[in-house]
Amino acid sequence: MGDDVGRLRRLGRGMRSWPQGPLDLLIQSALSPMPRAAPAWAAWTAARRFDDITWQEMRLLGAVQARLQELDPQSPLRPRIDGIQKNRWVQVQMKLRETRPAFECLSAGGVPFIVFKGGAFQAEKLGAANRRVLGDVDLLVHPENARAALDALHLGGWESTNGESIEYLRQLTEIRLNGNFRRGSHGNVDLHISPFHYSRRDGALDADLWHRAVPARLAGWPVLVPDATSSMLIVLAHATESTNGDWTVDVATRMREQVIDWDRLVEMADRRGIVRACLAGLGYLSLRIGLPVPDDVLLRLAALNIPFAERLKYWSNVRDRSERSLAEKAANRLADGLLVRQGFAVVVKDRSAITVTRSTLAPAALVRTARSSLIQPSAPALEYREQLPRLEGCSRLVVKLGFSSPVRSRRLFFDVCVGGIAIARLRTRAGGRPAVAVTRSFRIPVPTMDDRALSLQISARPSRFLRPGAAKTELEDFGPVPFHVAGIWTE
Description:
This protein has helices at about 1-10, 20-30, 35-45, 55-65, 70, 80-110, 120-125, 145-155, 165-170, 205-210, 230-240, 245-255, 260-270, 275-290, 295-305, 310-315, 325-340, 365-370, 470-480; strands spanning about 115, 135-140, 160, 180-185, 185-190, 200, 215-220, 220-225, 345, 355-360, 385-390, 395-405, 410-420, 420-430, 435-445, 455-460, 485-490.
C-alpha cells in the first residue's frame, strides 16, 4: 500500500499540463470538497480584481456559481456572476438555434453524425449544461462521408471560418481532421473525421464508438452522442491542449452523474496512444482537486509503457498552438513524423495535399526574354476565368496578379482551380501604405492535361468568415480584394 501511495504522489510531479494559478484556484472552488474549495475561493477573490479576470477564468464562473451560496453567501460578486450567467445562457441558446440548420443539412444529405464534447454535454442535459460556455458544436462524420458532409453544409450556406473555397476544401477532406464552418451571426460547427487531434488509427475502436453512440436531442433535433466512457476519453485527450478548465467540469460531472467503465477507458487510452494525456487529466482531478478517481486506474495507466514519440507529443502539446515555444514546435514536428510512421492520425499542413505558395519575384528568364503572356491583362474583379491553350513541355505556370494596396497591412488569399478542381492556394501580404497599385507573382504546378484547353479559375478569398452585414472596416481588414491578372507565363 505504501508503494502505491508513493507512486500516486509521484504522478503529480512534472505534469506540465495541469492548470496553474488563478485557473487552478477556480477549479478547486468549483469542484473540490468544501474544506479545500472555500480557502481556494478566498485566495482567488483576494488575488484577483474582477474587472481584470481572463476569459478562461470567466468560463469557470458558471461552475463556481452553482455552489457560491455555500462558498461565500455574502459575496459582493454574486450579482455580477449571476448576470454573466444569464447572458451566457442567452448566447448559448442563440448559438444552438442558428446551428440546428447544420444538423438538418447533414441529415438531408444522408450523412450520419455524432455530436461530441460541449455539444454532447448540452444534448445530454448534464448538471452544469446551462452554465457551460459553448464556442462551437463539434460534429463527427465517417471519413468516407467527409466530402458529402462538406457539400451538404456548402449547399446549406455554411462557409469555412478561414475563408477557403469549397473546391479547395474538397481537396483536403482526406488529410484534415477537422474544420470550422459558420453561418449567420452565431451558427458555428466544427466538422471532424476523428474526435482526436492525434491518436493511433484503430478501425475496431472507431466502429465501437459509433456502435455505442446513444440518441439525444440538441436544439430540438435528434442527434447521436458518444457513450459516457467514450466522452470521458475524448475530453481527456483534448485536456492537455486546452487553455481553459471546462474539461474538468465535464469530467467531474460525468463521474458524478454517469456510470464510467474504467477498465474500457484504460484499454482505449492504451490502444489510442493517448495514455499520457489521460493520466495527466485524471491525475490532476484526483491528486489536486480531490475527486474520487479510482486509485487503481491511475496506477494502471502509470504502469503502461509509453513510447518515446507519444511522450514527446504530450510534452509538446501542453499549450495552445499559438503559445508554444520554438522548442515545443520543433518537438511537435518530430513527434508527428514518428507517430505517422507508427500508424497515427495527426494534424498535417494543407500543403501536404495541395500547393500552398507565397508570392515570389518575377522569374529572371521572363524578364530577360520579355516573353509574351499567354493572356491579355484582365479587368479587376473578385474572380477570373480563362481558357488557356493546351500547354506542351512545361511544369509550372507563373501567374502575376495586380490589385490596389489595402488600407492596412493584411494577408491576402487566392484559390486556383483547373476544371473545377483546386490545384493551389496563393498567399501574400500587402497594405499599410497609401493606396497604390501593387503586383505579386506566383509559381503554381501545371496539372496533368489531355487534349483539351486548360480551364483556369482564380478567386479572391476572405481571410476569415464575415458575418452578414459586416462593417466596412471588417471588410477592409478581412474581405476578398478585387484583382486583375496581369499575365500568365509557362516555365
